């Protein structure tokens, strides 16, 4: 029953996203290579990598109580090694992301699991023959683990290639594929749940105010194992056009945490997010 629920929900969400986004089909105005290089020179060495957030919520597929409700937060940043380009006009970064699952409604407020994800990244911009930005290509060497030992230890390493580009008006997509290695000791069947890649689609509904986002990942299997994670971002501030938002997230599937990656869950959470502006080059210009 749960497998069918994940499968049918995944199809519904994907179909809904396609219908909504197709209604706004249009080519985005790209920035030129000179503008891109100038913006790289102005980037701070230390900045946000992925979203930083604190959200809390309840499950939709089980009884709600202090043992099933929880909180999740993420801290993520990156450091540019040098503003001087590497060969092929690439740039080198180191990144760190930490995601924690906190049972704040239990008596002793224990942390259920903490996942650590450092990486070394190389990024390169792709331009067309008119020197207009078409996409950002990245290659990362990543490690992810929960820092525990014995039977609770979970870890894996991967070489990840990703490409981010504009696909529709006000809509960007990020495509990731990874080559995993050194992961079979304590989680030999991990790829059955995380697969070999994922797709992230983000659509700006109202400029600097409202966004919709969906991430889809399919495990290496012929059943319903995988993930559909949908998010809505809303900026409630009238005069504050910064990257602070209220975020509503629905996570449906497995592998949300490394410790219990085999567990299926459907959980809705709400909270505060400092949204990454890593790919603002693809925002539609006015």
From TrEMBL:
<feature type="signal peptide">
    <location>
        <begin position="1"/>
        <end position="28"/>
    </location>
</feature>
<keyword id="KW-1134">Transmembrane beta strand</keyword>
<keyword id="KW-0812">Transmembrane</keyword>
<keyword id="KW-0479">Metal-binding</keyword>
<dbReference type="Pfam" id="PF02253">
    <property type="entry name" value="PLA1"/>
</dbReference>
<comment type="subunit">
    <text>Homodimer; dimerization is reversible, and the dimeric form is the active one.</text>
</comment>
<keyword id="KW-0472">Membrane</keyword>
<keyword id="KW-0378">Hydrolase</keyword>
<protein>
    <recommendedName>
        <fullName>Phosphatidylcholine 1-acylhydrolase</fullName>
        <ecNumber>3.1.1.32</ecNumber>
        <ecNumber>3.1.1.4</ecNumber>
    </recommendedName>
</protein>
<comment type="similarity">
    <text>Belongs to the phospholipase A1 family.</text>
</comment>
<keyword id="KW-0732">Signal</keyword>
<keyword id="KW-0998">Cell outer membrane</keyword>
<keyword id="KW-0442">Lipid degradation</keyword>
<dbReference type="InterPro" id="IPR036541">
    <property type="entry name" value="PLipase_A1_sf"/>
</dbReference>
<keyword id="KW-0443">Lipid metabolism</keyword>
<dbReference type="InterPro" id="IPR003187">
    <property type="entry name" value="PLipase_A1"/>
</dbReference>
<keyword id="KW-0106">Calcium</keyword>
């Amino acid at each position: 029953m749960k497998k069918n629920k994940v499968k049918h929900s995944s199809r519904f969400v994907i179909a809904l996203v396609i219908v909504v986004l197709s209604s706004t089909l249009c080519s985005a105005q790209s920035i030129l290579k000179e503008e891109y290089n100038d913006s790289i020179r102005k980037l701070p060495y230390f900045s946000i990598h992925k979203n930083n957030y604190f959200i809390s919520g309840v499950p939709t597929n089980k009884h709600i109580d202090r043992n099933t409700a929880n909180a999740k937060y993420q801290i993520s940043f990156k450091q540019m090694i040098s503003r001087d380009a590497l060969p092929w006009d690439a740039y080198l970064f180191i990144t760190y992301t930490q995601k924690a699952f906190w049972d704040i409604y239990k008596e002793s407020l224990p942390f259920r699991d903490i996942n650590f994800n450092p990486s070394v990244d190389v990024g390169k911009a792709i331009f067309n023959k008119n020197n207009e930005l078409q996409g950002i290509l990245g290659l990362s060497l990543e490690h992810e683990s929960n820092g525990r030992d014995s039977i609770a230890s979970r870890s894996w390493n991967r070489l990840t290639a990703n490409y981010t580009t504009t696909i529709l008006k006000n809509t960007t997509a990020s495509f990731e594929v990874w080559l995993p290695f050194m992961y079979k000791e304590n989680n030999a069947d991990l790829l059955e749940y995380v697969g070999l890649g994922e797709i992230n689609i983000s659509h700006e509904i109202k400029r600097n105010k409202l966004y919709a986002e969906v991430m889809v990942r399919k495990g290496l299997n012929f059943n319903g194992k995988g993930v559909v994670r949908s998010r809505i971002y809303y900026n409630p501030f009238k005069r504050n056009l910064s990257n602070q938002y209220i975020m509503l997230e629905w996570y449906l599937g497995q592998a949300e945490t490394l410790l219990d990656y085999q567990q299926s869950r459907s959980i809705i959470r709400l909270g505060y997010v400092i949204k990454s502006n890593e790919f603002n080059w693809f925002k539609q210009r006015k």
